[in-house]
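Form 7-S
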Amino acid sequence: MDLATIRLNLAADLAATGIKVSLEPRKAQAPCILIGPVVRVKSGGLCVYEVEVPVMLIAPAPGDAKAVDWLAEHITSVMEACGAEVEAALGSYDVGQGNLPAYQIDCTIYAKE
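Output:
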């Protein structure tokens, strides 16, 4: 199981939504999807692993009501692209343009060895 490959495959799946995808926080420019590093790996037995990857859906600046509408328009397609088990919570993210509305999506992926 290669964690880097899991993130790259997730990035490819999320790119299908038509929203810019970044694996590098310093290069993320809103609106975008930012994929964080793997935060948890759990063995499920029989060479199956549960891998948790945080994903941020970051709204466009300036973070007004239109930005919140943009999030509402895109959250379901992003969650579907994440795959198996997902949970999203509304919050904010600072990408150098101030705090922008964002969904933190906890994406759980099942991988085989």
